Amino acid sequence: MERIIILDFGSQTTQLIGRRLRDLNEYCEIIPYNKFPEDSSRVKGVILSGSPYSVYSATAFQPDLSHIRGRFPILGICYGAQYLVHTSGGRVEAMPNREYGRAQLSKIEESDPLFQGIIPSSQVWMSHGDTITELPENFQVTASTRDVEIAAFRVSDEQTWGVQFHPEVFHSTDGSLLLENFLNICGCKRDWSPASFVETTIKELRRQLGDDKVVLALSGGVDSSVAAVLLNKAIGSRLTCVFVDHGLLRKNEFENVMKDYEHLGLNVVGVNAQERFFKALEGVSDPEQKRKIIGSCFIDVFDESARNIKDVKWLAQGTIYPDVIESLSITGTTIKSHHNVGGLPEKMQLKLCEPLRLLFKDEVRRVGIELGMMRHLIKRQPFPGPGLAVRILGCVTPEKINILQEADDIFINGLRQWNLYDKVWQAGAILLPVQSVGVMGDERSYENAVALRAVSSTDGMTADWVHLPYDFLAKMSNEIINKVKGINRVVYDISSKPPATIEWE
């Protein structure tokens, strides 16, 4: 399959470049700046990302691009553009003031193929403390802003371009068009689609797995569910899915999800391990310790269940592309594991199968739709792996879980009834380690407080709190206080990420 290679120099927006190209139906791969693939027969073009470093810094990433220059069309973005200039004899210098935010193009070389269809006053997003002050002899300015003369350039004797702004960022109004122009320069077919992914992946899974048996850990979430359906279409009954009920799920979630999986025709083994998890969590209040205990218990329970399946050789997981990217530093070394079930491959000595490892989250949903999965499964909001344990601040008990399940159920159902559910990236209730005085039925009460949380996001990397209607919040507060014994106060979390995180623990 043809592809665009994105060389990552450590920019926070590198993933956005990949997302924009996928939105344009072009397959791409994000790899560390110094790991250009040996087999480049299907590479159509190369994009150099931004970076937190200065090109003239001793710690800057400085790969040899001589084997790429002239062979492929190249687009350097921010640091990538400055690096092209710096290594070709031009000059990059620190600016008196860092330029960050919106800017307007004031001049465009309209005949340049990279700027086809882009208007001179187009808004772009700048984020740099250095700027290009002098171009090499064979470089030509193709765009300027009021404050930056060399906002973009091209190399006259090769298909190489550079822009000091970020076309991948939403605030660059013609950014997608610029990237589309680059794909046209590269001669890309742009035939990447959910349908083509499903077709090619099923063929690849059949080739990879042969007649082997596969076990998959289901969580009830989108990623593992889509992975299961793909594998089911590829190998059918040779796939066994295990769904562990650790007692930390939403109200009735275990039963509801099991029904959904039955409808999908999946071979699913449900395991009730609530007592085991509650016993292991008894008296534990530290958030990180709770996560480790839950992860360790899950590995043990899943391992025991998988051992009942004879001759299983593969472990399948719903790992997606952001997990793969974030598991590598730009030097190619692992900095953290994103396997959905950490430790299982080593413990069970199974080969790993990750059919979604090349997809972004929104693409996983599109593939699920292509597979004919039910909308409520595809549109499910993210839910933390440790479940409600990280939405109970302090020790976890069955009583606290019951209280939180009831409050959370009212909140989530309320979002659906008010047609707000699909407008929210993630929502839930958090049980606080706080008791307050209230008046209920003319009597003094001293009970728990619960916080409601709803955020909007595209990928969970950043998030903003959702401005839910006041009358909706008032109704949720009344219903939770009136119907959930043990709660007499409801608050709404208006913190964004950063500085806060989506989950409280």
Describe what this molecule looks like in 3D.
The chain is α/β, with parallel strands linked by helices and 505 residues long. It has helices at 14-23, 79-86, 175-186, 194-209, 222-235, 253-263, 274-281, 287-306, 321-326, 344-348, 361-370, 375-378, 398-417, 470-483; strands at 3-8, 28-32, 43-48, 74-77, 91-108, 123-134, 139-145, 152-155, 160-163, 213-218, 239-245, 268-272, 312-316, 351-353, 426-440, 443-456, 464-465, 487-492. The protein has a 9-stranded mixed beta sheet, with helices on both faces. Strands 12-11-10-13-14 form a 5-stranded parallel beta sheet, sandwiched between helices. Helix 6 (253-263) links the parallel strand 11 and strand 12. Helix 4 packs across helix 5 and helix 7 packs antiparallel against helix 8 (287-306). The protein is globular and about 80 Å long.
Layout of helices and strands, plus pairs?
Elements: E1 3-8, H1 14-23, E2 28-32, E3 43-48, E4 74-77, H2 79-86, E5 91-108, E6 123-134, E7 139-145, E8 152-155, E9 160-163, H3 175-186, H4 194-209, E10 213-218, H5 222-235, E11 239-245, H6 253-263, E12 268-272, H7 274-281, H8 287-306, E13 312-316, H9 321-326, H10 344-348, E14 351-353, H11 361-370, H12 375-378, H13 398-417, E15 426-440, E16 443-456, E17 464-465, H14 470-483, E18 487-492
Parallel strand pairs: 1-2, 1-3, 3-4, 4-9, 10-11, 10-13, 11-12, 13-14, 16-18
Antiparallel strand pairs: 5-6, 5-7, 7-8, 8-9, 15-16, 16-17
Helix pairs in contact: 4-5, 4-11, 5-11, 7-8, 13-14
